[in-house]
Amino acid sequence: MIVLAFRDVEIALGGRTVLEGVNLAIGQGEFIGLLGGNGAGKTTLLRAALGLIPPRRGAIEVLGKAASRGNPAIGYMPQSRAVPANLRLSGHDFVAGVVDGARWGLPLLGSEGRREVDRVLELVAASALAHRPLAELSGGERQRLLLAQVLVGSPKLLLLDEPLMSLDPSHQAGVVELVASLQRSLGLTVLFSAHELNPLLGVMNRVLFVGNRQAALGTVDEVITEPVLSRLYGTRIEVVRLGGRIFVMAGAQDMARDTHGCGDHGHAHGQEHSHEHSHGDHAADA
Ligand SMILES: Nc1ncnc2c1ncn2[C@@H]1O[C@H](COP(=O)(O)OP(=O)(O)OP(=O)(O)O)[C@@H](O)[C@H]1O
Ligand SMILES: [Mg+2]
After folding, report:
1. Dist. CA 29 → ligand 2 center (Å)
2. Domain check: are 65 and 185 in the same one?
3. Count of beta carbons in the 10 Å neighbourhood of residue 131
4. pTM for the whole thing?
5. CB under 6 Å to ligand 1: residues?
6. 183-212 confidence digits (pLDDT tens)
7. Same-domain check for residues 163 and 242
8. Per-residue pLDDT tens for 23-80?
9. Helix 111-123 vs helix 139-151: angle between axes, to the nearest 10 degrees?
10. φ and ψ at residue 68, rounded to 5 degrees
11. Count of the separate structural domains present in the chain
12. Which of ligand 1's atoms lies nearest the C-alpha of 259?
């Protein structure tokens, strides 16, 4: 079964073509790593699948139907995530907020709503921390609660926009493992966007790489190659494999690392990631 299909899709934003000639078909249960430099179009592609950006040309289908807003089959974690204003809010109430509001439309949580909150908290192994205020939780723990929110209503397709942003490597690994185990146990289809390939190497079935207005979908061995990436970055790329890790280099520059700042630490690359920053900041321009 095809969960997400793009057929000859062209997308323009503010009069600029961001993606063109995009064709892809993603099957049920696949874990897809969505990769590409700043401004390559990862967020745009996810928002188009949500029906938030109508394509200028071509067709986008989710579970066989034209992409449209408010599809309950999709769970979406946006890139610029709303940090709850009130950090004294408990994780439980944070998750209950979406059960209460957007998806279920119930003014008060009935027993069904409460069961749903308990169910998703258990899925992300957050039952024990759900009664503590958000202020007390680590970035990784809050990320688990965000994931619980996304699972409300049992979506079939998860669109996760940079869930690893501003997490340290050990927390990154925890989030990746959690998403992968949910994907396997619930048969979910996952599109997981990231700047770095390596944290996803062990779990993704295929990679969807965007750049230069194009997209390439295939296995790591098919896509993470010098010809494909040179085309997508618009510059000569070298792929270096070292100790089970893969480095995508343009000359001496590591494309993943250098577009993201050194490591991630001490870089103002937080939750807020404005389009102003990404505009014209395409890795290929660097
Ligand atoms: N509303 C908009 N109007 C005009 N251009 C936009 C708009 N939103 C995004 N863009 C442009 O579209 C391109 C793709 O942006 P997008 O946010 O999809 O990239 P991305 O791959 O998610 O980047 P990042 O890694 O920085 O999150 C960028 O050049 C961006 O500046
Ligand atoms: Mg983005």
Report:
1. 23
2. yes
3. 11
4. 0.88
5. 13-14, 16, 18, 36, 38-44, 79, 273, 275, 278-279
6. 999 999 999 999 999 999 999 999 999 999
7. yes
8. 999 999 999 999 999 999 999 999 999 999 999 999 999 999 999 999 999 999 999 7
9. 130
10. -150, 155
11. 2
12. 25
